[in-house]
Amino acid sequence: MTQKKNAQPKQGLHPRNPHRARYDFATLIKATPELDQHVSENAYGDLSVNFSDPLAVKTLNKALLKHFYQVDHWDIPAGFLCPPIPGRADYLHYIADLLAQSNEGAIPQGKGIRGLDIGIGANCVYPIIGHRVYGWQFVGSEIDPLAVKSAKFIAGNNPRLKGAIQIRLQKNADNIFTDMINDEEVFDFTLCNPPFHSSEEEAMAGSERKVRNLAANANKKQQARSRGKVSPAFNNAKSSTTPVLNFGGQKAELWCKGGEVGFIKKMINQSATKATQCFWYTTLVSKKENLGVLYKQLEKVGAVSVKTIEMSQGQKLSRLIAWTFLNEEQQQEWRQERWS
């Protein structure tokens, strides 16, 4: 199997993100041999996987986690969110930069640094990357008992993760930080990929749009094949016209009442009740038009500093917002006590 030598790096990813380069499928297949059956040549002559196939996406993730982060045992139950690894890694690298900006340019690393992953899911991906790259310790919250069981299995059955990740069941779906950050507990940062649809119907409509785009790409590939541009031997990926969530996702992972704005406003309000127990609260925001409402809410609850960090992967643009309630004196004390 050969890789195109002139393939360009992926645009927009963080400079420290190891996934900036094109996938080296020969190396990934060596790490995870079952990936081989999912790799084929696409319409542009590049090796790729069929991203409309949930099993192909999951197997690619297995290979990436094995090769880059030395995670030997990783799997998720059918139907749960299987996130794209490059984007997840980007979020963590930008959090590292955020901490460095508050620490005279040095990234705080090691087991003394604690992060809280809101909605860890069944996949445990954020804590895996954060611990393997920066040595951070994590607590992950989750409202789905099956997802908790899956994440605990991953954290407990990989030697390089043992003792670094704790998963907690959030019993009240209306709570985010309430009943999750204990009274004497502190975190250096939180992170969250919030549900961004407001209803199941809206989530399904988004899935259908994704399927239409995948079908359009499949048609392009068929046209290229008919012109002799794609070798039939490499063209074994199957297209689908059924609205399949290729990256999966349960109800709580995809939608909630009030959608993204409703969820993040609740997060902001509850963070204010734990104002001095975390240095930087952060969350992804998928829709740029939601920022104005969120800025107003942060001002209302008294956030001292708010930062917006733009991220991109190819043509896909996203962003995270971060806020802190700590003033300069409190930030200095935090650095001396935890990061020095």
TrEMBL record:
Q: Where is this region: Disordered?
A: 216-235
Identify the EC number(s). 2.1.1.181
Query: Which Pfam families does the record associate with it?
Result: Methyltransf_10 (PF05971)
Kindly state which keywords UniProt assigns to this record, in alphabetical order: Cytoplasm, Methyltransferase, rRNA processing, S-adenosyl-L-methionine, Transferase
Q: Does the keyword section mention S-adenosyl-L-methionine? A: yes
Question: Which reactions appear under catalytic activity for this entry?
Answer: adenosine(1618) in 23S rRNA + S-adenosyl-L-methionine = N(6)-methyladenosine(1618) in 23S rRNA + S-adenosyl-L-homocysteine + H(+)
State its location(s). Answer: Cytoplasm
Q: Tell me the enzyme class.
A: transferase
Q: What does this protein do?
A: Specifically methylates the adenine in position 1618 of 23S rRNA.
User: Entry's HAMAP family?
Assistant: 23SrRNA_methyltr_F (MF_01848)
- Describe the family membership recorded for this protein in Swiss-Prot or TrEMBL: Belongs to the methyltransferase superfamily. METTL16/RlmF family.
Which named protein is this?
Answer: Ribosomal RNA large subunit methyltransferase F
Origin species: Photobacterium angustum
What are the top taxonomic ranks of the organism?
Answer: Bacteria, Pseudomonadati, Pseudomonadota, Gammaproteobacteria, Vibrionales
